[in-house]
Amino acid sequence: MASLGLLLALAALSLALLLAVPPHHELSYGFQRNTTATAASLPITPADGLPYTRRNIHFDSHGTTCDAWLYTPLPPEQPAGADGSGGPAAQFPVVIMAHGLGAQKEMGLHRFADAFAGAGLAVMVFDYRTFGGSDGEPRHWASPRRHLDDWRAALRFVKSGGLGPEYDTQKVGLWGTSYAGGHVLVVASEQAPGSLAAVVSMIPHLDGVEASKASVRRRGLAASLRLLGAGIHDRLRAAASDLLQRIAAWLHAQSASQGAMLDQAPPYGRNVSTVGRTGLKGLVSEVDGRLRQALLALLPPVSSWPVLEPAYIKVVGLVGELAIMQLSPVQLMAYFAKHPTEYEGGWRPVILSRFTLETSSYSPIKSVPRVTAPVMFISALRDQLCPAEQVRKAAELLPTSNNNSRGGSSSRGELVELDCTHFDAYLGEHLVAATESMVQFLRRHMQPSAEVSVPVSDAMSE
Ligand SMILES: *[C@@H]1O[C@H](CO)[C@@H](O)[C@H](O)[C@H]1NC(C)=O
Ligand SMILES: *[C@@H]1O[C@H](CO)[C@@H](O)[C@H](O)[C@H]1NC(C)=O
Ligand SMILES: *[C@@H]1O[C@H](CO)[C@@H](O)[C@H](O)[C@H]1NC(C)=O
Asked: Which residues does UniProt call coiled coil (predicted)?
């Protein structure tokens, strides 16, 4: 009886906490995944006339299935007269790619993968758990910790030969943009020297503390606290929902064991001498037991106990809105310009609000001094989200042993600076320039023997 009281008190307490942080009209609640197939899951076949094929593949990340595109270059045409039984088939080096905060593979990553695959590299582009074609609930759980785990799972999958014998497990590169530009640096810093062929970190998120300071400067303290409040609100709802489910399960277990106990006990009054000895006590105990049994029988089944839908915050919004990234109307248009017309999984520009509690302590720049693989940084000089000065600083933090040597002269990392804003780096001339540099860099480090040159700008006309 005491533990039942305790649980009810805990339930009351959690409800009180929920009320203390009332639902915010700028947040949304719940997210229904849409499993209808979209263009993102259509394969690309040789009939499409491209120099590669693309199919969807899957790998496991911590018990959840992640969806990925696998681009495979078409084998070079055999010269006339060759019977195909010549030397051993070459293996394709593999570039692993994933998107930035709240985004999924169909949002502009095809353009980069198209250029890399056109240059003879296999490319695996994956969706984080709970995004796009990947499984996992609650949907749109953006989290540096979880995304890093997905990156590690993707790398393990490729390195262990999960793609098949025609893919080279020794020549693997990582490519990440924006939030993922930081993830690839963290994951690269954990690998043994020589185990990664190349890393591309494009307009990367590097420093959570600096990003938070800049955010507070831009929005003001009150708006910044509202961001944190949204995160606490979502966490509390998740905790309260979990607690309610546990209470429901516990009460049902009680109900079952109470019933079993009463069925075993001798019914009251059958043995007169027992009544004589335990008297009123026995009566009270039995009535109490029967009452509890009756009450517990009225319990709704565990599955119909209320579930508090998680709270979602906008990942992009206009200046003044409660959103992770506040953009001008022009920048907001640039953000959506790289998107498809139909979103896989029923994507909306929202993520779980609990993200706001995790991001300020996430600073991939701390990992940079331990990255031994060759790195190419791309920065945007007018980037307000991931400032170019930080990227320059990161390039200088690469260890002196970092071997990026290009024909003898060694430099620590390569840095390409684009004269544009964050989201403009995915569009037009900036996209072409960035992609051209990346293709050259990746070929140099992953396919040193390749001698054909692929015109990048043609590959971009999609
Ligand atoms: C009634 O209780 C007495 C004393 O506890 C016991 O000896 C006796 O066997 C009981 N009779 C029945 C029918 O249970
Ligand atoms: C699910 O997605 C498909 C394809 O994008 C769309 O036609 C359909 O309306 C969506 N369903 C819901 C319930 O939103
Ligand atoms: C750096 O790379 C070049 C070319 O790949 C190689 O010849 C050289 O030995 C490497 N240097 C170090 C210190 O690893």
From this structure: none
